[in-house]
Amino acid sequence: MKIKIPKNLRLINLPPKIELTVFLIKLELKNVKFTNDLNNKGIDTYAGFLDFSPLILSIMGFDKNFTDEFREWYFDRQTQLVERIDSEDDKKFLEQAFIFYVDLVVKKRELDVNAT
């Protein structure tokens, strides 16, 4: 599956697996922003939260045995990345998704090093 990113947003061509992962991260970040905004207005959104983390982490090759510390880091980092984004700024969501992808690559390397 090839995701069509507008040519004016492309700086480099990414492999399809990375494009898909960044696309899923972007969707999840938008969901985090939306649910956080609703929670800040006093609306409970727990039942409506879409969690793409199992799919994203599986595509990236993470081990399925996640610690509570890792899951806390994962969701806290998402919250930090979307805190100051305007909900309508799709380009900013894409930028933050790529930043989060890089954060995950670094975290995976750290976990792999600590496992050996």
Protein architecture, described:
With 116 residues, this protein is mostly helical. It has one domain. It is 63% helix and 0% strand. The protein contains four helices and no strands. The chain has helices at residues 16-40, 53-59, 68-82, 90-115. α1 crosses α3 (68-82), α1 crosses α4 (90-115) and α3 packs antiparallel against α4 (90-115). The protein is globular. This is Phage protein. It comes from Agaribacillus aureus.
Tag the structure with descriptive keywords.
globular; 63% helix; mainly alpha; 116 residues
The helix count comes to: 4
Helix content: 55-70%
Mean pLDDT: 86
Question: How many strands, which pairing sense, and closed or not: the largest β-sheet?
Answer: none
Number of strands: 0
* SSE string, helices as H and strands as E: HHHH
Structural class: mainly alpha
**How many distinct folded domains?**
1
Gyration radius, rounded: 15 Å
* Low-pLDDT segments, ≥5 res: none
The gross shape turns out to be globular
Strand content: under 5%
- What is the rounded distance between the termini? 34 Å
